[in-house]
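INFO  loader      accepted 1 record
INFO  loader      residues=501
INFO  predictor   begin
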Amino acid sequence: MRACCKGTESVSLKKTLKSVCKKVHQLKLVESDVKAKSCSADPDEVRPGDVFFALSEEDEILEESVGLAIHHGCSAVVAERPVPGIDSVPYFIIPNVTEGFAAFCHAVRDYPGKSLKLIGITGTSGKTTTSYLISGMFAEAGFQVGLIGSLGIFDGQGFHIHTESEMPPDHLVVWLDRMAMNGCTHVVIEASSRMIANGWLGGIQFDAVCLTNIRRDHLDFHKTVEQYRRSKLGIFKYAKKKALAVCNIDDRISEAIIPLIDQPLLSVGIRNQAEVGSMLVERFSGEQTFIVTAGTEAVSFRTKIIGDEFIYNCMMATALGIGFEIDIKTIVRGIERVENIPGRMERIECGQNFNVYIDSARTADSLAAVLRTVREVTAGKLICVFGAAEYHDPAKRLQFGKTMSTLADSVILTAVADCLNFETATAICDIGKGFTLQNGVQIMPERAEAIAWALSVAVEGDSVVIFGKGEPSSMEHSDVIPFCDRHFAKQWLYENQTCSV
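INFO  predictor   done
INFO  writer      dumping tokens
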């Protein structure tokens, strides 16, 4: 897809860059502003008059791409460092060219987000669940809601599945424009650490930010835990001065950075004193009841998704709703209307006499939280199918194994990627090292075989938890048919169990 953006009005390049960058240096001797209505980050796709944003980090590729963009007629170049011998077009140097590209994309589209209430959700886990709950709450309050997340996009009229793990800036602005045209009033955006660190949110001004938690993740990109944590905190750079912040005070890292947040803030917590608190009343395999307190008010929630992590997500949505002055009863109805989220403690019910859940835990903490929740509602054995993948942080693979060894009765390690490549096989071996001799692990590379085996050995009172990516299609089962944990499990249960539905 062409990395570009085109609008209808010419905008000032220098002014737009200065809106997101403190330092903007122009190399050309005679400084002049550039006005344009389109931009591109792909030198092969530059059209005459485009501003070219050179995203390449390698010197040789940078020289080549800048030269090609000039050959195609770009009106200016924006980069993070100079290229020798370029004097035919204005050349701007900024600290983060991706952020400049993002801001200019929004500018040429006349900032579609300015007509919307934008809510950013970030954190190691719980982003998708929290975004769905907030969307349900706003919808119940009568607002037209747009949603941009890891499972897809709702543009106010229909749901669109997208395959990108993160939303590039030129795509993000197009979707916001579309949502504004479709009559959306509020948009909920999942913001990954990569999006924040890369500056892909340039041009965005959030009206509210929810920080679910900060744990250990994505060290393949961020290199250190400190850099990862700093990137999460960076989302507040894209928040309005009076934007509402909602933070989990029970999360150790989130609690530590609360003094650094210079926005009106509402905290949520179960163990620590917070503006929005909660207490579990009862929990079963298919529903739970809990009380949420906010000031002098206390309301009861009954949800079909279970677990303490889900309660935290509900508290985040509740706090946000209070900040937006939504009636507490409307908040409860909006949250309770979300009965199922793909791959997030998703319960599979096909008349079987044992529990089946699908989840997408990516960290050892999330994995442990799910297994503890399921253990709580399991009378028999807890059987775990875990899809290993090369994207799992090597440093935490051993912890995955230790967690499952401690909390599950039986574990089957399998693939989660499109094929069992060397990296996936290595991940499986690394995870397997975390198991004790007393509690071993089976390895079944074929994912369908692993899930079928787990379901076949489960008896009344047992629970089977299938861990994977959580998206509708986790891997390619064949050259034609995309494999889906949910669909496969349901089909197997209907074909092999005595069902009541």
